[in-house]
Amino acid sequence: MKDLNNKVAVVTGAGSGIGRALALALAKRGCRLAVSDVNKSGLADTVKALKGSEVKSYHLDVSDRDAIYAHAEAVRKDFGEVNLVINNAGVALSATVREMTDDDFKWVMDIDFWGVAHGTRAFLPHLIASGDGHVVNISSVFGLIGVPKQSAYNAAKFAVRGFTESLRQEMQLENQPVSVSCVHPGGIRTNIANAARMGKSENADAQRKGFDKLAMTTPEKAAEIIVKGILKDESRILVGPDAWGIDAINRLLGSAYQPLVTRFSRKNLYV
Question: Fewer beta carbons within 10 Å, N or C terminal of the chain?
Fold first, then answer.
């Protein structure tokens, strides 16, 4: 996919943050947009910001498998085809393995992993039929390394990475007209930390302030990096200098990165 003009692009979690920024960046390149979010108000604001572009919005809870498959059919019917799917919707949880509840664990996995997996599978036949398709799944730097108090989020994002990398190879081996990219953002200045669930013993204010300090990249910059990665057909798209640093440490040290993260966490997460 060397040109995005007139391509039909699907973006989940488009009501704020990276999702909204992606919708705006794709619109500038001439995409026809199918945007969705569980937050109706945020989604409406995104549509307003897209004034002048061809856009249709959909209320969608990506934790609902049947709703995702129905959404895929609706988009195909509304636009005639689908070329690009960005499974971006996500949530966060800060809690230790001992402290997190089953409900919170399931909440994260249903949205951050199953939302991506079902979103990919639901749209894949339409992407293949288009003759020029691309799947973009949003993982995280926490899909590259494990971090204390992020076990559920780590589990989901590592799963997204494995699922997406496997799919890319399958599409190549089957000579299918679909490219696949996995995105690993570092700290992005979005509302995800403020909307995160916290374990009972967590100091929510301290955790969120800590995240804000580490958020190095704006959603707009993240979107530009992702779009450029799509056009270059990159298999792994790293977003932000912290993402590049974490990827390098992981490659150089392997599992030996863990003592570094432990020391960092003792100072910044266990407060």
Answer: C
